[in-house]
Protein 1
Amino acid sequence: MTNSCPPPRPAKGNDRYDAVSYTPYPSNISRARRRVARLAVDWGHPGVAGDAALLASELCTNALLHGCLRDRLFRVETSLTGTALRVAVTDPRGERLPHPGAPVADDQFGRGLLIVRTLANRWAVEKLTVGKTVWAELDMRGDPDA
């Protein structure tokens, strides 16, 4: 964990970066999910678009349920390097860190981070001066459609 928000990395060569801030309303979860999926396709990796969209959806849902404050935005950053596609969601509640649970069969909630752990090759939480960022990465193989 870090305690400050690093500035966006400048794109190098084929690296790509996108960031959008959203109001804390449920309708913006699907907007963020569609944007991340479209970026993966536009950036030449349609094979991971579904997984990237699901990661965005789970991270945004967690931010909305556990990390957002009224009238404070949450941010979704999507970046692509030669080795990974990263989805990062930043919210204003740094004191509420995520922790994967062990839901029972009839629990309605509590599986989001389990899905993130299953899909992502890596994920972590970065504590910021104000808020936190939860990110997940998908490894990019040599084949853009992998």
Protein 2
Amino acid sequence: MPAEETAPPVTAFMLIKTTPEWLAMTPQERVNAFATQVVPAIRARTNGVRSRFYDTEFYSTRVTDVWVWEADHHAAYHLLVDALRETPFWDRYFEIVDLLVGTENGYARTYGLDPVATITT
């Protein structure tokens, strides 16, 4: 019996920019706001999501941070966005500049090819 194919995880690159309200807080106030207002909403509403957070303000004025999310499936990603939109993170502490959502090596999966664009040296 052939192995059942599973849908690839969804990866989302949230390109965000800090707002004056966020920057007016002390670093400790930012940590507290994130820990008490954003993280609980994510944990309560989602399952099967993981994230990494990158500071980019040293190199870009348009985007100050990139929050990379991986979700087990599209429904998990939708729940994540819904959860974030109900917190001050969305358009109060951060401006959402762009959302880039895709699946890793989708072209290779579509055409049954090896993922030649994924390189490790």
Protein 3
Amino acid sequence: MTAKAKPADPADAIDPKKALVPSVVKVNETRVTRGFWPKIQRTAARIPFADQALAAWYAARDPETPLPAKGMIFAGLAYFVMPIDAIPDVFAGIGYTDDAAVIAAVLALVSAHIKPRHKLLAADAVKSLKEK
């Protein structure tokens, strides 16, 4: 973010009306770039939607994915990595249900941009993470 850029409100990450605003996309991309892999490494063995989150990650990083799809993916993944959300992740059993719902909603919106290669990369990554 440049010195002239106005910082985005963290709540903007999950506001669908603001998810595609360039400054919000940039904040979400930065948040996801920093936080996604540490969180997925901690949680991949415990969350049933790890493969979907990873497929979304790979699609967001793919240069062929259109910017609007990337913006929505980064918004959903930003919600996943945010430490504070609707149902705190520390609650066993239900802590990740809100994250799963957000990931499912994002995938429903951008499913045409989640390619078989993204799903294969995600399956390989989940297998690797579960073996650790």
